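Box 3.1. Reading complex inputs
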Amino acid sequence: MQIIPSFNFASIPNIIFGPGKIAELYHIIPRFGNNILFVTGTRSIKNSGKWDNIISEIEERGFNFWNVSVNHEPSPQLIDEVATKFRNKNIDLVVGIGGGSVTDAGKAISAMLPKNDSIKNYLEGIGSKLHDGQKIPYIAIPTTSGTGSEATKNAVISEIGPNGFKKSLRHDKLVPDYAIIDPEFMLSCPPTITAACGMDAFTQLLEAYVSSKANAMTDSLAYSGMQHIKDAIIPACSTSALDINVRTNMAYGSLMSGITLANAGLGIVHGLASPIGGYFNIPHGIVCGTLLAQSTKQNIHKLEELGSQGKNFLQKYAKVGALLYNEESINEKDIMKQCSKLITILEKWTGDLKIPRLGTYGLSENDIDKIIEGTALKNNPVVLKKSEIKHIVLSRL
Amino acid sequence: MQIIPSFNFASIPNIIFGPGKIAELYHIIPRFGNNILFVTGTRSIKNSGKWDNIISEIEERGFNFWNVSVNHEPSPQLIDEVATKFRNKNIDLVVGIGGGSVTDAGKAISAMLPKNDSIKNYLEGIGSKLHDGQKIPYIAIPTTSGTGSEATKNAVISEIGPNGFKKSLRHDKLVPDYAIIDPEFMLSCPPTITAACGMDAFTQLLEAYVSSKANAMTDSLAYSGMQHIKDAIIPACSTSALDINVRTNMAYGSLMSGITLANAGLGIVHGLASPIGGYFNIPHGIVCGTLLAQSTKQNIHKLEELGSQGKNFLQKYAKVGALLYNEESINEKDIMKQCSKLITILEKWTGDLKIPRLGTYGLSENDIDKIIEGTALKNNPVVLKKSEIKHIVLSRL
């Protein structure tokens, strides 16, 4: 019989999932009030014509609304400006429609509207105050299948530059009230973004699955997410970008990645993504995608060295290897073979999806020590030495 | 690639799971206030000494508290009396500690405290009003591994007798704010109750798994629940009743059953349990346990007749059969063989756990027509004729 370690599992949003489900937004809004602040991106949703549809539905129903646009990963300044501008407007509901930057921005704005203060004071590792979770109700509507932000309790806020950082505003109550996941919104997502987001989602699922904090619930949801992404990730970025079923599978995997990372934590890839994203203007999904295969290889190698202590995690990696090769069961004596298969397929995805190396964005060997200084292991299944982490980054320059 | 049908998934409680986790209750209470209404059973928790511990911790911290006891499935009268008595006492938090009847009673009381009205007016199929979800915050602490009520959005209210019923008060917002699942509270649960509750939990998992409303998320959680119950259910009722790991596996399965039934619905076993439980004083878990194997047999038989239309559900039944026999994968040509194995093991459990037949409680052939009249198919994977439903009950008289 399996031993179930103790765990906490945070509340999740009310999830409304499926093509065309945006229509439910208009029925939900009146539960919260009449004054809506929309937080959107600057491009995709507006180009797709979907934004015009939403606005005409909103106007038809006589709701009051405002719209702020976010065109990059949200900075503390952006959140403070928007929160200050709308603090006295009696906003009843914030609705964030966009990629991870946008849905995170909406989450942070909904949390800062009731505070007469800067978000910097509440960021983990930056400010000294604890957010109390009080917020204006928030609905997240993702337009990419990547960050899973629609299901998480944190918003990532970035300041880019020499003293840059990527830090979270986090509270159990910041999980969105509703997440509407409508894969039709993802049909117009271009291949490069679909690829980066898809690799981010898969990284989150795999890191949550082998996390030292994983539990039976996160295991089952992370496995389910990987099961749905595995055959969709390459088609979604190529021949089948307009296939709603492919997009639906990616959206489901991304949603599971958000739920599982919020409850099981992440590993070394996200440990590295935080300082790299702070110092360099590289999309988060690219950082994760480019580091995933090499980090997995390093983890597996280190777990193998550990012997019996590492076995449980190696079995999990092997199970994912078997899943990706459509082999339902794993054989005790084939564990290392299936771990190798996992690395091979992750390397293949990185190549097929043309995920760039870090050097493309100006990152060089001279930057590595500073990056390693700012890297946390998070809930990585095994402790890695600085030299081992360095090796991961070097191999992806 | 799998096709993912659209779905809604309701918010779940903040879950705190593991032996000894009751200790977190005292840290959570101050988030809600100082005045606590405890709803408890009359026996087990008080005999176990756990109640004295809780009270001394509560008194030490200076909280105000009241306690009401519930000794059977809650009736409308009971809920109305308690809600009336405590409506003006400024209760900040309701805490239900007990089996499904108690945690359901607590849930209903927390929902009726803010209403100056009888619960009968809000019960599905009985009253004409819709509950708006407003309630006093509620924490559920189960002491049995059965109903999964700690994770559901409904409270079952029963009136027993010739015009009896078993109906739900239901709203998405009635999902408890917190569910504390501490398997230490289940160690003193006697074998007969452990068996009935365990069969109820397994029934809920299997019915949710093959529900016509099942989705990818409920599938993964229901499968995970069955995976953990399968090797624990017999030991928990016999040799290993005091093994905390066995109780933890049962508690996890029960929790998963609550989450999945709330989101995927149930089938014919629960369709029958509602009128049977209304007319006869038979514990709910016994009704489910005694009907499970025969209902599964009937469903599988009917699905087989349907041919290709029934295949998807037969594959799911076969997958559970394989799981219970520790076979990881199912072979396309062995589907019916694995379905038979599932029926065999369910029959074996019913025998090993000595789940009584319905006749033991006075139910006779003369009662069947009335029962069938009140039976709903719910989300059963296949439509059953009245004669087929009758056959299920007859075979378990």
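In summary: The mean pLDDT of chain B is 95.
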